[in-house]
Predict the structure of Probable membrane transporter protein.
Amino acid sequence: MPWPETHLLLAAMGAAFLAGLARGFSGFGAALIFVPLGSAILGPRVAAPLLLVVDLVMASPMIPRAWRFAARREVAVMALGALAGVPAGAWLLLQLDAEALRWGMCAMVLAMVALLASGWRYQGAPWPPATLAVGAVSGLFSGAAQMGGPPLVAYWMGGTNDAARVRANLVLTGAIGGVLSALAYLAGGLLGLELLLLAAALGPGYGLGLWIGGRLFGLASQRMFRRICFGLILLAAVIGLPLWDR
């Protein structure tokens, strides 16, 4: 993987900061912003593994608190589903054409933000077979594009859990899915020294976004911030379309 030119590197850093801001506030959303933009800047087979490495390292301080507040039994069942879904998603990332991947990733982003913005949520009590199935779908999206958060949000936000519990569930599930994705990407040859160096370059901006987003959680209006996040996600999906390459 060649080192990106300066203007591309700066653009990727900006995308990483916005992604970290969304992730720090809500517990998800980083991939919905970074992957479309990062795919346009660096290519999809770089963007997804790059976000994975940066997020695993920079978001790791969030895990101890998430462990205390999460519904750990539900998270464990969700992780079992992800164990099946992640390798299938990673296989898609490795096998599909780069342009087809970008179209698919942007379409996935638009579908996920439409799901979240619609307000639809699963209204039943957590049910192990349903939790397992959602985990598999989330794992598939994580392996292919690190976009496993929205199915989890739609599943958990409709129950009796408060926002802090849902956020903790998302952080903990994301960490487990990240480890599974890392193993799949390593087996597929997507993780190398060049990518790790690029992750080190993007890490500080992403970490700053995480910190600011975490400070805003509980202080800013969740409704207003959610609208801002949706706007950024939609903009990222549109900008990331291969249409603008020509």
In short: The chain has one domain: 6-241. Residues 6-241 form one domain. The two ends are 23 Å apart (CA to CA). The chain is about 80% helix and 0% strand.
